[in-house]
Amino acid sequence: MPLAYAEETKDSSYEQFAEVFARFQPLPESTTVVKSTEPTKGEVIYSDDDVESAEDSDAETKKPLSKKKQRKAHRLSVAELKQLVPKPEVVEWTDVTAADPRLLLHLKSYRNTVPIPAHWSAKRDYLQGKRGIEKPPFQLPSYIADTGIATMRDAVKEKEANMSLKAKTRERVQPKMGKIDIDYQKLHDAFFKFQTKPPVTGFGEMYYEGKEFETSLKEKRPGDLSPELVEALSIPPLAPPPWLISMQRFGPPPSYPTLRIPGLNAPIPEGAQWGFHPGGWGKPPLDEYNRPLYGDVFGVLPKVTDTGLGEPVDKTTWGELEPEEGIEEESEEEEEEESADVPMEGIQTPSGLETPSGMASVVSTVAGGLETPDFLELRKNARPSADADDSGPRSLYHVVPEKQTNVRGFMGSERGYDVSAVAGNALPVLGDERVTKKKGGVDVTLDASELEGLTEEELKRKYDASARGSAGVPGGKEDFSDMVAKEMAKKKQKMEREREGKRDNKFKF
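Request: output the structure for the sequence above.
Response:
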């Protein structure tokens, strides 16, 4: 007993508790057990093995504890483990037997951790409790059943059931295809237009027995009244729920501060009326200055989107390719603007005369001098001028009659075309004088230096010679007989080589 405690016990106030304090003090080491002198009952010894020797008693006292007993002795209890971890709600009775309980509970309480299924320690096999429950037959999804495939399959099965054995055997040997014929457009719409996702579990959500029979409340939102609930509460159309009057008196529910409730902090629907008559929406909660207490119950305040909080979000897609026609459209617009400034009949000369051909006049014939025009037309005008003599109404095409000819030359053909039979000889023919006389005839390249000092007859003769002649063959057509003979000789040699090669391959075997 410590000295300070002994001095305190001398006081009379501690004498009555001295006996109680003495029970919690350790026994002194010098105390010895006094054997009683009373006679004891003798023990019956049946053999010498039962007698405990001194060596056996010493071995038992020196034998150390096993590792299993040491682990069990140092094992924490569930209450102690709950005091050591930050989230005691994840502690289970099996966690105390782990090698490192603190690390295990840290992993279990970590964010986005998927727990181990609860049936890992169950004695019974998994899903053995559903053996007595009748499993409903499989039903096709609604978007597949709408195609009518189930009805067609039932009709085919009913027809097969009424078939004879001979017909069934014949059908098994030679089956008929196309019994169930569904419109491909219906199948496309079923899988790409009306298909819905099946109900799946969320992240970290584990399945257990009987989970499919529980009521799912994930799709439910506070304040939304389903048609079943409206029918169960007998709420007529445009009538408020029965708890609206209590909310107007005591305020909105504190658990849902952002919930919009019509008649309390949101406008009532169109067609509804305020009042306490049957179907009325009560009285809106107002302060002493007739201002709504909980929100815009009359719908007169500006909306949150109209207050201009922050910059509007740009929802246009990025990375789209620009249309290739943009450059062409811009050039066409520029041409239209330029052509709008220029009159259709041509640019006026300083003399007041207009050029009838539509071409821009560069050099003025007036004695006043030269003037630079505002617009220069650099494109070639392939269309005939307005003063060209017309030979009548023009047609889009001409039908050229066919004629039978003999095969001539290497590239000869059995069919020919009578070009001279075309009405008016509209098709240009090289060397035809009727065509070359017109402005839109065949173009002939002549050197301007050779035309100086020539008369009209010499100029016409030179033109006919250059139009009808060809390079190296003056005044005649080019002779292709040499080229045809060479091609025929090459073809003949090639056929002979192929024939010899086939003969050699034949004798190799």
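Confidence is low (pLDDT under 50) at residues 342-369, 435-441, 470-476.
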